[in-house]
Each structure stands twice: as structure tokens, then as C-alpha cells.
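Run log, item B.
One chain of 325 residues. Sequence copied directly from the ordering sheet:
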Amino acid sequence: MRDNDSAIATTTIAVGTPEAPATAAPDPSAASAAPDPARRSPLTGGALLAALGVAAFSLTFPATAWALEGMSAWTVVMLRSVLAAVLAGGALAVLRVRLPERRHWAGIAVVAGGVVLGFPLLTTLALQTSTTSHAAVVVGLLPLTTAACSAVRTGARPSRTFWAASLVGAVVVIGFAVQQSGGAPGRGDLLLFAALLVCAAGYTEGGRLARHLPGWQVIGWALVLALPVTVTGTAFALSAEPVRLTAHSVAGLLWLAVGSQFLGLVVWYRGMAAIGISKASQLQLAQPLLTLVWSVLLLGEHLPPAAPVAAVAVLVCIAVTQRSR
């Protein structure tokens, strides 16, 4: 098996040797003595990894708001990707990871366009006019968008119960967003809706690739592939737009680069590979509620009264989708 296929767990077959003949019956528990975390039950394995990714992503909007205190939107987006690419590229080089097979590069390009460039740029531009709490609930539609994209791309056919629970969760999120925005979507909402589409495509393709490559290599190669664009964009942005470094702006940028752009996607893609793109995507229904909490704690935004009700409804939907077949 190639190194690039190490995302798929392998099993070893014990054979007899002159020093240790295989005379005893195999121990059924031996195969599970040291299980791959992503091959355990969905609750303790892949779902846990995907949940860690969601937790990392829930801090993205507050971190972006902090970064925008000292930098422009273009500088934030391009610089975060360059820093993440340096981290990922360094890991790829130190571990001497071979280049992906030619058949994987088209998918990696989709990940780069959707997750590395498209979603960060569109959401960062939207946050110039929208609050993090409002953006969070709009992007709450991402699970349903990802599930639909997965069904089209991979031929997945989730059950009717799965789709019903997903639609209910989406309705809750939409109702929450409309109630908060007064029913009048603006430019920021249009940017966020566009971000949903490109991110869903990137998540779907990344989840598919993570069945053949380790999750960290999927996002790592996507970051490296986008490097010519992000380095050029960073140079132009820094020369044209002022930068005022503050504790908030530096902390926000570092989290975006290390947590959101790299480590979060590593565990997210690995989780999707283990439990399926559609099921993993439904865990993101909790992301808007987590972001609302961070918005209050880190940014001092007012928590909408409807948030607890929405949280209970969303968590019920998550439980249903995770148990459905």
C-alpha cells in the first residue's frame, strides 16, 4: 500500500515462523487491541473527530472579527492561507510525503478553491457588514448544503428520516436567521449564501479524498496548491492596505491559520472519511450555536433570546441524523 493511502486502516495477518509457530487459535480481541480512532464506533471515533473539527470552526468567525480589527479582509484571507501553507508544507516536507496520484489533483483543486480561498474570502467580506452571530446562523445551512452536494457527487442516498431531520434543522436555522435579520437579506447574506455553495463542494471533495489520503495531507496539498495565489495576494494586500497589529488581530490571525485553516480541517476530513460526508455534515448544525456563545464571550455581542430554543431543536436533529441509516 502506498503512503498516500494510509488514511485507510490496514490489518495484519499473523503467520507462523520457526521462532513462533502459529499453533494457537487467534484471539478475537487482538484485532481491536489498538484500534484506529476513526475506525471505532461513530460516537467515539469518526464522530468525535468531526466534532473536534466543528469546535475549531466555531471559533472562525470570532477570530476573523478580531483579525479585522487590525487588517483588511483581503490581508486576513491571504495571509492566513500563507501561514497555514507554511505549516502544512513544512510537515509534508519533513515527513517526505510523496505527491498525490494524478487522479487526486482535480479533487485537491476543488478543496483549494472552496475551502482555502472561496469560503474564507466570502465570509470575511460578509463580516465587514454582518455580525458574527448573524453570519453564524446563516452558515448553519452548510450541513444541508453539504449533504445535498454529497448526494450529487458521490451517489450517497441517505434515508428519508435523515433528510427529514436535516430539513427540520435547516428550517430552524433559517427561521432563526430571518428572525434576527428582520426578513431583509442584504449584501452580507448573499456573500454568505455563496460561501455555503463553495464550501459544501470543498467539504464533499475533501471527505471523498480523505478515504484515500490522510486528512492532513488533503488540506495540506490544497494549501500548497493555492500558495501561488495566496502569496501574490498577500503581497498586493500588504502593499495596498494598512496593517495595525494588536493583540486581538494577531491572535485572531494565528487561530485562523493554525486552528481553522489547518488543524480543524485535518480532524474534520478524517471524521468525514470515517462516518460519511452526510452524517458528519449534520454535526455542523451545532456550529452556529457554539459560535453564538463565542460571540458573547469573546466579542461581547448580545445573545438572542431564541438561541436556547434553537439549540435544543438543532441538537435533536443531530441526534436523529446520527442514528438514521
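Observations after the first pass:
- The chain has 14 helices and no strands.
- The mean pLDDT is 81.
Flagged for discussion on Thursday.
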